[in-house]
Amino acid sequence: QEQMVESGGGLVKPGGSLRLSCAGSGFIFGDFFMNWVRQTPGKGLEWISYISSSGSSIFYADSVQGRFTISRDNAKNSLYLQMDSLRVEDSAIYYCAREPRYLYYFDLWGKGTTVTVSS
Amino acid sequence: EIVLTQSPATLSLSPGERVTLSCRASQSVSTYLAWYQQKPGQAPRLLIYDASNRATGIPARFRGGGSGTDFTLTISSLEADDFAVYYCQQRSIWPRSFGQGTKLEIK
């Protein structure tokens, strides 16, 4: 069945880096736009980045612009989020979310991976 | 950035009751609004897209409405499985944004 699985979360010190991955299966990964959305108890759900199916179009939330980099490898059915210069406020559950080009909303989510930024 | 304000923050209701949740946008989003349901320990699930269209597999008791800045999600008769947190989300203008959520709890 269709699913996505995130990995790469963990504990990192402020200023450090992490790379999240999201592996898709059960569907043609390259046909879909992809996003990263994070969730914290305090701020709720926050969209943070989008990448088009080919990778030619990318958007970021202001809160991560210049620090995070989204990318994808359609041959490997994978989405990535390189997170640099991490801050305490980046601590969250990070979800990858699929976006069909005919829908423009998030119709399939992974279970999430937890990132904790703490000294 | 478009701010989505959901009300109320929490609702205590009984199974069988009808409920209407509200989502108000800080500026018009036309009908480019979705609703998601999230249960504890799970990712959000898409319920309604473009304000009033049910996503695949969503029961008919869920109905979305509204346009511009004011939107509603109505559940006609609450079932035990419906007690969860509901979020609205707009795609009209970047950045995409979510409301802060409304929690439906069992009375």
Fraction of residues of chain A in helices? Answer: under 10%
Shape of chain A: globular
**Cα distance, first to last residue of chain B?**
36 Å
Most extensive chain contact? A-B, 20 and 23 residues
Number of strands of chain A: 11
The SSE order of chain B reads EEEEEEEEEEE
Count up the helices of chain B: 0
Structural class category of chain B: mainly beta
Gross morphology of chain B is: globular
**How is the quaternary structure best described?**
heterodimer
Unreliable stretches of chain B (pLDDT < 50, length at least 5) are none
The helix count of chain A comes to 0
Distance between the termini of chain A: 40 Å
Strand content of chain B: over 45%
Question: Roughly what is the average pLDDT of chain B, rounded to an integer?
Answer: 97
Which regions of chain A have little confidence, pLDDT < 50, spanning 5+ residues?
none
Report on the structure:
The complex is a heterodimer of chains A (119) and B (107). Chain A is globular and about 40 Å long. Chain A has strands spanning 3-7, 10-12, 18-25, 33-40, 44-51, 58-60, 68-73, 78-83, 92-99, 108-109, 113-117. In chain A, strands 2, 4, 5, 6, 9, 10 and 11 form a seven-stranded mixed beta sheet that branches. In chain A, strands 1-3-8-7 form a four-stranded antiparallel beta sheet, with no helix packed on it. Helix content of chain A is 0%, strand content 52%. By secondary structure, chain A is an all-beta fold. The mean pLDDT of chain A is 96. With 107 residues, chain B is mainly beta. Chain B is built from no helices and eleven strands. In chain B, the strands form two sheets. In chain B, strands 2, 4, 5, 6, 9, 10 and 11 form a seven-stranded mixed beta sheet that branches. The model of chain B has no long low-confidence stretch (mean pLDDT 97). At the A-B interface, β5 of A face β5 and β10 of B.
